[in-house]
Fold each of these.
Amino acid sequence: MLYSRVVSRVFTRSILNRCQIGCLVFCSQDQQQVLPNSNGFQSSREAADKVSSSRAMYLSSSLALHGFPRRYHHETSSVVEEQTDPFSIVADELSVLANRLRSMVVAEVPKLASAAEYFFKMGVEGKRFRPTILLLMATALNISVPGSAHHGVIDSLAAELRTRQQCIAEITEMIHVASLLHDDVLDDADARRGIGSLNFVMGNKIAVLAGDFLLSRACVALASLKNTEVVSLLATVVEHLVTGETMQMSTTSEQRCSMEYYLQKTYYKTASLISNSCKAVALLAGQTAEVSVLAYNYGKNLGLAFQLIDDVLDFTGTSASLGKGSLTDIRHGIVTAPILFAIEEFPQLRAVVERGFENPTDVDLALEYLGKSRGIARTRELAMEYANRAAATIESLPVTDDEDARKSRRALIDLTHRVITRTK
């Protein structure tokens, strides 16, 4: 409480002028609305290769379109003074978290223990994207307490706060991995992170139980924080994960072709975890409601950008680069942003989508339409817009002279660029 009150005084409500993000001007190009003839369809791989051929062009132009960090600060701010590798800043902490996570998922039953630690073993931990965001956000929001208090007390309070914020990162990662285990069962996936998926290796029942076990461990860690608002936030995340997955499984034909429905589902399945975890970190630091909302909005917009690029990579990436199968969504009948944008150019595609892609010929047809459209390009542009919004929220945080906080803010903005330009 003492620390929270002091921090609240330090972070005044004086907020920087919001960055003005101009509307993205979508590149216009003439499209010949020519339908493929009945016997001239390419194979799904050839069509996918055609879609993929545009990737290099859009990656090379993404710096200009996205306005790599310096754009957000142009004349008014010195927050972005140098490029900073976000992952290297928190590398030591990530190692500590990884070891702690491995110890947290130990179970009495050997088979359950082996399953629970499956994606926490060294070498298959994944990008650790979410913990990196949360540790950087924690530093970005923590300001040194004025020297009126005894330095020993300050250090003790700061260390305790950091431990609690690290706990949020651990909880978030356990919830995330649990959702992956459950998703792989629902999708009948056979690969994840470059290795066999847990359901493929140990069976569906063990995979489901391992996911449940991770969620239970996350709940225990969450309860230890003794903060009802934070508990409510992360409990809501679990609800959102279930809601999003159910939305994906039970769509009407109208919903399958709705961008609004797609974005809502994407928020539930991906962005809710990042956004609410960022807000939890802010709340633990005793931040004002306004700053907590900024942290939430950063996570929400970055999460949406991340998933939009994921949807692009499902068409343009390779199984080797993704660590799982490409064209996975469309082969499971899941309609994502590139196809939705393609429908706007080729309304005939809607009938194909409504059939559900159970026929491989329909997959080929959809890829043919996608290759003729700007679906991939427009999805990247929408992702860039969300990434720009995420960067703007960091620019809107209260001014600080704390160099560690400034460095972390630069890194958070750098992450918005990395999300857009990633290839796996």
Amino acid sequence: MDAQASIPIDPALLTTSTHNVNVLPHDSSAPTHKANVSQYDSYAAYELAGKKMVCLINPNFSVCMALKVRIMDLRGRYEDIPMEQSEVERYFEIYNLMLQHVPWLEDELKIMDAPEFDKVANKLTKGMSDQRSMDLGSLKHAGLAYIPFKMNTTFTLDPPLLKGEDKSDRGFNHPQIARLLCPRKKLHLFDEDEAGTMIALQTGDIPVTVYNWPSFFYEEGVYDPQNRLRGLFRGHITWRFYVHLFVGPSAAAKGVVTSNTAKKAKNRAWTLTEVTPHIITYVHVIAYFTLTAELKWTNTTGEIDFAEMAWTIVDMFENRDKWTRETLEWWNMHAFPRRPQNCSRSSKRSLEPDSDDDVMHIRTKRGSTLSNNTPATDSSSGTLGNDVLSNHMSSVSGSTINPSESTSAAVGSTETSSATGFNFDALATEERNGSPLTSDEELESTSVTVRRPKPVLKKRKKADDMIFTTDTDDPPAGVTVETARVATRNTRRHTGKKHANGF
């Protein structure tokens, strides 16, 4: 549990805040309030937002503390938040990123009471936990297949690792995995004395912290002790983890970045169009945890704090220098390859001299034949001339029609009839089940879309002191959607009125 989360916030500090926090403005086109829908749908939206946050913000942060810090600033003194300045700024950065996924959250915090706060924080946290567990489960065994530098070669771990729940034979207990986790600066020692270096890594004689990058964070065979940025975050293992999670397992197995399967991975489900430093952070943390001996998600392993590791990686991209630009360009170039502008595959093929391309030869021949046999415009010939066409259209419509206009009108009519005669949106694609090693997975079912209008919520009572005296950052486990719905029905039975969102 986050140590800061257990620090209660004194209710006496709840006075009008005079600190001007740099909260990013909302997108004017995005809704700034929840839809007037049932509690189940409303909380499902929070849960889906949590699934996105863990991948696109940070794999391990306290939702409660991010919300508490913002509420305390709204109604208290910013200077008295019981954290270091750097920690407070970090949580404000998290909060700004959260607003991209729940844009109505800022308005809700101003009128949110303690029970609602607990429910919202619980749903966001649950979404994060579920998504992280789903990704770790998907990569628990499949991730080991991404270790070899060349995927098309026969590769086996020695000693082999059997599929099962136990991971105790991974981490620094397995020579090949220990080499990947070994700090890159000490890799030469590992290659010289494998057994001795493994013992040193296990006992801590060789320190393993978030400040000395593991070997697999670097590009294979690329390391400069005088320039330790070279090759950093370009490892083939983390790249394949990204493809597995954001494009699809089948794409990662084939070594491609496109997937045509019915089930959508993150890029398609969430319409992601770029790789950000936070996404790079997520795949590195998930890859590191997969290689460790930890069975279930934990905040720390040995001297490694995963939250600190995540922020350390993100901080590496703060300085917009040449390395940052080139690293982000490397990831995006591989993740979203684009053809050169104004140069399609057909034009490339047609420009090649003496080509053996039979298709292009036939198309070129047909094109020249068609141009040499243009239909005659004389009505005496066997073709339908423009005069005949004009007279025919005039007799049908009772008015004079320009031949060119009539032709374009006929084409437009055909297109309209085709477009309106068949509803392509009505087609449903049947999902197929498959192994995580051979099929894309999971995320299509999590895309909850609220399609109802979003009227302005009625103002509820302001937040009470219970929000700021919570002793833990974990929301009460007993608060569920079902209990909230029962409470809503009981309230309606006594009052005879329908309250918004159960209040």
Amino acid sequence: MAQHIDHKLVENNLRYRFEYLSKFINFTTNDIAILNTIGKLTAPILPDIVDQIFQKFLDFDITKRYFLMRHFGYNGTVTVNESELTLQSEQMCFRRTSMTKYLKRILRQKVWNDAFLEYLSYVGKIHTKMAGSHSIDVDFIHINISFSYIEHILLDVVLSNQQIDNETKKSAVLTLNKFFWIQNDFFSMHYTEQSNTNGMKCCLPNRKVGCLGI
């Protein structure tokens, strides 16, 4: 007999939604432990990882433009000339610090309690106007491709490490894939909500310029 899943709870209860996702893709405490292991591996090179991520954002004008605007929670100087924006620009340092905190948290969290799930959800929400800021509305295509790029960087760190056995590497590949699907879902549910609020078709966010980066 098929297990019953309550559609309304999936849509309205974050814990219930996470448990459904976890059962479907078999995300367990073993995966959390693998994430913690990856956290230890990446700790010494985390600044370099973050720089790679943000350099990729600057490599394309369609993503670079998000960093030419004042971001939520940032009160410093804003570089508005695209040709002058670099990784060392004040607003980029702010976003790089935020990304570093995000990566540390997802890779070090040992217990996925309700507070942590709310954090994963909030990270998604603040990239849309659903958090109440009209300056933040990142097109979902950039969110998707960013997760893919971050996952590839982390996988490269794991797979190129000669001290890790093949079984652990296999587990890391599966775990990272599961995690980013869960995080992607926690982002997409806010885009879907925003689209429905705006009377648009599901999963087609508004095309407004906002901020990119965790």
